[in-house]
Amino acid sequence: MSRRAADRLKVVLNHLDRSNSASVRSSFTSSQAVSYHPQTLRYTFDTGFLSPEQRIFYEENGFLLIKNLVSEEDIDRFRAEFEHVCKGDVKIPGMVVMRDVAIAKSEFVRDQKAVSKLQDFQDDAELFRYCSLPQILKYVECFTGPNIMAMHTMLINKPPDAGKKTSRHPMHQDLHYFPFRPVDHIVCAWTAMEKVNRQNGCLVVLPGSHKGTLQEHDYPEWEGGVNKMYHGVRNYDPNHPRMHVEMEKGDTLFFHPLLIHGSGMNQTQGFRKAISCHYASADCYYIDVTGTSQENISKEVNEIATRRYGTDISVSFADTWALRGRLVHGERTSL
Ligand SMILES: CCCCCCCCCCCCCC(=O)SCCNC(=O)CCNC(=O)[C@H](O)C(C)(C)COP(=O)(O)OP(=O)(O)OC[C@H]1O[C@@H](n2cnc3c(N)ncnc32)[C@H](O)[C@@H]1OP(=O)(O)O
Ligand SMILES: Nc1ncnc2c1ncn2[C@@H]1O[C@H](COP(=O)(O)OP(=O)(O)OP(=O)(O)O)[C@@H](O)[C@H]1O
Ligand SMILES: O=C(O)CCC(=O)C(=O)O
Ligand SMILES: [Fe+2]
Ligand SMILES: [Mg+2]
Hints:
Jelly Rolls, binds adenosine-5'-triphosphate, Phytyl_CoA_dOase-like
């Protein structure tokens, strides 16, 4: 080992001694120890908030689970607001209320109002409180730095599967939808609004897949149909080791936009609820996705934007994001 490497290792071990973590320390005594020097951690900022263990876990796996981060009271308030939206008591311009494809296309609709997803709730003050919760932003800052934009908001109400497996969300990388970079300064917070498990279709992740590149995405060839814009990675290998992330109400998963993830069928009679926000550093910049694998989704989004904003003004894929993004901390510098 070179002198410089030995010095670096000493710094790392000192650092870890302070965290008093046996498990992490043992991983540092392996031959790869030096590659874990804080300066070489590429996915998180050292704000002093995350423990070295947490930073290394995210580095290796592309996600971080924080138990009990959002209070029961807050979640109950989000749930109540969601019910107001479903009943039509609250109408927010721009917010998309989506039904499951199997329900939308069925002749025998059990419950016309069965909403599978709310998208773009940035102008609903009550739901948007989720994106500004200080305990969430404290974590987000470790990934984005201090200037933080809430770019994409969703409340997912996964319906009981109607028998066609359409309640599944195919394995995908969220970056497919995003025309902004750099990728490492984007993070998703996903909070369980109730117990989520394999039965009701919890998140399924491929640990470490965030270290790969952005893959080509398309609609999976599912016999029972696929929801609008639910693209999946092409040539998905079902044999790749995967993990079912079971969570309790209030638990929050932070994950990298290249992490391959999806969710299984909801085999229960209840609607599985989660609320999420994609954050990005306001210092990120927009990219032109023309000629890239993202061109297919940008075309679909542009079709929806044309329906929403009309043809009088031309709204680009990047514009649709600039219009929806909201500053939640620091300064709106670029996005
Ligand atoms: C500004 C642009 C925003 C873009 C969002 C960026 C995405 C970013 C994502 C970020 C990463 C997150 C990753 C993700 O989460 S990706 C999934 C995100 N999904 C979306 O963003 C979809 C947004 N939803 C919509 O635009 C509308 O709700 C649609 C267009 C789907 C329905 O429209 P509307 O509610 O007005 O219904 P309608 O009664 O007039 O029916 C019209 C036609 O549509 C059929 N139908 C109904 N429901 C579905 C369905 N679920 N799947 C397929 N088709 C469906 C229906 O049978 C009928 O077809 P036909 O009978 O004519 O054949
Ligand atoms: N061809 C495919 N392309 C992309 N994603 C897929 C494909 N097949 C399955 N998936 C995804 O893999 C994940 C797991 O699928 P599945 O429905 O088997 O759920 P599960 O949790 O394994 O359920 P079960 O407990 O019944 O096995 C889901 O996100 C699903 O949408
Ligand atoms: O809540 C889920 O089922 C997963 C949703 C998801 O990954 C997404 O909408 O990008
Ligand atoms: Fe996703
Ligand atoms: Mg399965």
